[in-house]
# Entry
Amino acid sequence: MRDPLMRAELKRAMIWLGLAAAMALIVLLIQPLLIIFAGLVFASMLDGGVRLLGKVLPIPRGWRLLIVVICVIAFILGVFYLTGVQIAAQFEQLRSTLEAQANRVAHWAADLGLMPGRADISDLAKQALGSIGRVTSFVGTAIGALSSLFVIMVIGLFVAMEPSIYNRGLQWMVPIDRRDHFAHTIDAMGMTLRKLLAGRLLGMAFEGFLTWAILSIVGVPMALVLGLIAAILAFVPNIGAFITGVLMTAVGFSAGVDKGIAALATYFVVQTFDGYVVIPMVARKTVDLPPALTLAAQILASSLFGIIGLALADPMTAMIKVALEQKSEQDAEDAA
# Structure
């Protein structure tokens, strides 16, 4: 080992072995890593609220964070206190309605010879749901989902309390001559993520409220729960809008042809107004991701990482986009 050539070869082999071990660990720990990333996304949401509150209320950051957390908890508890019973009843009604509509469509398709028998239809449904992505039992069970949500909130709260500590910790892992560029990239990623999430939250509130209001006016049943589902699924553009349209149409036609047409018209009105008015206005102030890139990222993330990957596809894409832009700018500066 005193031979310099032997030591150089050993270092090279250790680097390759380290890379292989790192990739293996990422594959084995992908679900916990996604939960940690979701916690960072939640921390960005809290940090955005703290920064926004700081523009009108010049008090220490800890107090502003406390106010934001209290407001979020009060909003959630208030919504479920005022509409919890109604939402629970409508969710059960929605499940029964969707099951009846699915059986009706399956029977109609089987009578026309377009689908196999009912036993095969259930197998196809399981395969279709399984193709969405590999979700481990830790996240797939109800208790696991609640545990994951709790961990995400705790991580996000701790990071939002003192983000500078974690920022410095990441910088220490980078060579000294690259730390300034890395710090600038991290700041750009944080700003992009805050803008993206602010736009998503605004779009979710608008789409959910408008869906509930129009469906209530035209008399479509379960308008409240459909508006809530539309708001939640608006966090995942493209795919979420399609699922919302299918649910609205199924519920509408279960109450009659006129209600089905009204629900379908409501879907097109909300999506058209959202796509041509709200999204362009929000995109100018936030992050303008190309729709094809967003959809491709969602398909890949859902296939690789499951439901959590689908929900986090947009933040991951936005951060990768910022990292590539910053790398390109740094290369241009180095070349000059």
User: Anything to note?
Assistant: The CA atoms of residues 293 and 317 lie 8 Å apart.
